[in-house]
Amino acid sequence: MARFNLSYKRGKFIKMKKHKRLRKKRMENKSENVSFRKLVNIPSTTHATFGLYRYPAKFIPHVVAYVMENYAKEGMSIFDPFGGCGTTGIVSRIYGHDYELWDLNPIIKILHQVAIMKPVNINSEEIIKEMRDSKKEFIPNWSRLSYWYPQEFLPFLYKVWGYYHSFKDSEEKNILVVPLLKISRYFSYDDSQRQKLSKSTRSQDKIKELLKSDWQNIFFEMLKKEINKVIIGIKEYSEMSPKNVKAVIRGGVDSLGETLNKKRDILITSPPYIQSQEYMRQAKLDLFWLGYTEEDIKKLSKLELPYRHIEPIEIHSKTFFEYRNKIKGKHIQEVYDKYFWSILGLFTQLQKDINSRMFIFVGNTSAEGISIPLDRIIIEHLENFGWEHEITLIDTIVSRRLFSYKVNPASERKDKRTNVENLVILKKINN
Question: Does the N terminus or the C terminus of the chain have fewer Cβ atoms within 10 A?
Fold first, then answer.
């Protein structure tokens, strides 16, 4: 089977030798420090179409590629129940594997569609000229729109999004969507360095400065630049030789209430962190411009972990109870319980339909300043259902999507967010 191999100094032979050394150490140690960025020949986390959209807690493509190169055999299929912006699928195509992605956020279908496009010959200046001349309008169905945008910008934004929505399915529409989302957010009061949709003094000062400038021309200059970035990214992805495989993309679905209709060989995913679960709140600004209504987004938001009812499950992990007993606050205990009931409940249900291995990428985030070993809890629980822990690969976080604090403003405690992420590798026994 052909494997993705770019012409860089590090070759596949070297990578496979490193992998064999890791396997040898498993007999002695169940964990190993690695750098996925060095083990896989992808130039950067934003290469090709991997970095088109700034999705919170994004999976780096190197992790998925590592799994593909070292564990996925020809004919195997891949599944990710927390598909995010679609990285698992984008990488799976490079290695020729069928795949299935789920995510609560429906934007996954649009982002995936753009990311796997074939190269296009589109003139960004012509598109911008047509957009300037367009008379069509699109007004989002959102009562809070004027809170997030100054009145001066809104008629202009209605017009540029009217042009976008005037297309049916087309290459032009796909090329425009990510640039328009990025720039429309830049022209809002949202502080992009915060995880949740929120105003700040910094973001309001930015808008004040924009209003003093020739902001319409700034918008179109940014748009031209972003369109060209998308075109280049699509070309780079094409050079990685993605294959024509079967894909199932399910956006806007409640992963906790779903079951697989078809068995898959490998599960690879990165579930939400314990206290970073409100992705719909961050996404709604984009979803309104894409045409989703307030009712649509309210329904999706109610399915996020903090806001839904979760049935308790039996948890087979002494570590779970050990750390729960360390938490004093009743509210944090409830968050802790709901998180593990949902995540472990999901894996318990899905593991029945996974044939070979599960790869679960987690960081040990904190509660009340206590670092919670998510990886150990997940391992202990799933071992009860016939899964063997092979190894945990520990990778250092190189950069964050969000700025960091010396002191967490919510808890007023020293910020103890994890600086590593762990790839837990589990093998189905007797497989």
Answer: N
Same domain, 365 and 229: no
Mean pLDDT over residues 127-136, rounded?
Answer: 95
Q: Mean pLDDT in the chain?
A: 88
Q: Is residue 252 part of a domain?
A: yes
pLDDT attached to residue 279: 77
Confidence band, pLDDT 50/70/90 cuts, at residue 405 = very low
Given pLDDT bands bounded at 50, 70 and 90, which one contains residue 418?
A: low
Closest CA to 350 of 119, 168, 102, 109: 102
Cα–Cα distance, 116 to 272 (Å, whole number): 25
**Predicted local distance difference test score (pLDDT) of residue 399:** 55
Q: How far apart are CA 416 and CA 190, in angstroms?
A: 25
DSSP string, 244-266: ---EEEEES--GGG---SS-EEE
Q: Name residue 155's amino acid.
A: P
Mean pLDDT of 118-144: 95
Residues 54 and 92 in one domain: yes
The parent domain of residue 144 ranges over 124-237
Name the residue with tokens 């060095």.
38
Instruction: Answer yes or no: is 6 within a domain.
Output: no
CATH of the domain at 343: 3.40.50.150
List the beta bridge partners of residue 251. Answer: 103
Residues 337 and 224 both lie in one domain: no
369 sits in the region (left: phi over 0; alpha: psi -120 to 50; else beta) called: left
Please give the full DSSP string across 391-428, using - where no structure is assigned. Answer: EEEEEE----SS---SB-TTT-SB----SEEEEEEEEE
Report residue 25 as tokens. 């150490």
396/390 Cα distance (integer angstroms): 20
Can you name the residues that pair with 387 across neighbouring β-strands? 428
Helix (H, G, I), strand (E, B) or coil at 44: coil
Last residue of a domain, one of 218, 237, 256: 237
Question: In angstroms, rounded to a whole number, what is the distance separating the alpha carbons of residues 230 and 2?
Answer: 27
pLDDT digits (tens, 9 = 90+) for 338-375: 999 999 999 999 999 999 999 999 987 888 889 999 99
- CB-based burial, 112-131: b 16+ in 10 Å, e otherwise: bebbbbeeeebebeebbeeb
Residues 259 and 389 in one domain: yes
The order of strands in the sheet holding 78-80 is 31-34, 387-396, 420-428, 354-362, 264-269, 78-80, 99-103, 247-251
At residue 189, does pLDDT exceed 70? yes
Q: What is the mean pLDDT of residues 53-58?
A: 79
